[in-house]
Amino acid sequence: MSIVAAFMLSSTVSIPTHDAFFDNIRQYCGQAFEGQVVEDNFKGVETFTENRLVMHVRECSDNELRIPFHIGDNHSRTWILTKTGSGISLKHDHRQPDGSDDDGTMYGGHTVDAGWEFAQSFPADQYSKEDFIRRQIPQSIWNTWHMYIYPGNFFSYRLTREGRELRVDFDLTNPVELPPTPWGYED
Questions:
Q1: Cα diameter, the chain
Q2: Which pLDDT score is estimated for 13?
Q3: What is the pLDDT of residues 50-68, one digit of tens each?
Q4: For the whole model, what pTM was predicted?
Q5: Sequence spans of domains, the chain
Q6: Is the pLDDT of residue 10 over 70?
């Protein structure tokens, strides 16, 4: 195996702000935190304000973080942050209760700049835009997801587009009991 091939297997090239952001989240691996909606101007099919919200930094490696986002008894969502060599990818893994893929799974975005050690933004990627068109929700092609982490204080998950904003803040000062295994995953 060449030296280059061995390096690529062991580590994804990254820049300091992406590494710091990633590590700021990874330090909470194995812990769960309760959140609350601080902004939600959408009154659609599902409202987060009526349910207990818990994020669980569940699986962590040098290049990937899997963070289930539990909404009441709905254990279908997992955020997947992956170092790609050209930034960080955010995907939303959505599952059915039997563990099978939901029709609207793996949408998300990718960083387009360095961001900051405490904040990164993920504008919708091409796969997601095509999926939103297929699912007849074209307004979502303008989605940008944002994550902010201030260690020892809070973590925020935010979705923005014209006319739409959702933000959930999670209290990092008070770990909570671990939630159930997310749908489609194993212990």
A1: 55
A2: 76
A3: 899 999 999 999 999 999 9
A4: 0.92
A5: 13-176
A6: no
Instruction: Assess if CATH 2.40.160 describes domain 13-176.
Output: no
* Residue whose pair of structure tokens reads 């405490």 in the numeric block: 118
Report CA-CA distances (Å) from 120 to 17, 20, 61, 116: 9, 11, 19, 6
What pLDDT, on the 0 to 100 scale, is given for residue 47?
A: 65
Which residues are paired to 161 by β-bridges? 164
Tokens coding 165: 């904003």
Which residues are paired to 95 by β-bridges?
A: 101
Structure tokens at 174: 């008070």
- Distance of alpha carbon 51 from alpha carbon 46, whole angstroms: 10
Contacts of 134 (CB under 8 A, 6+ apart): none
pLDDT of res. 50: 85
109 pLDDT exceeds 80? yes
Helix (H, G, I), strand (E, B) or coil at 99: coil
Of the CA atoms within 13 Å of residue 5, those in its CB half-sphere come to 2
For tokens 């700021």, what's the residue? 24
Q: Which residue has tokens 């020892």?
A: 152
Terminal Cα distance for the chain, rounded: 34
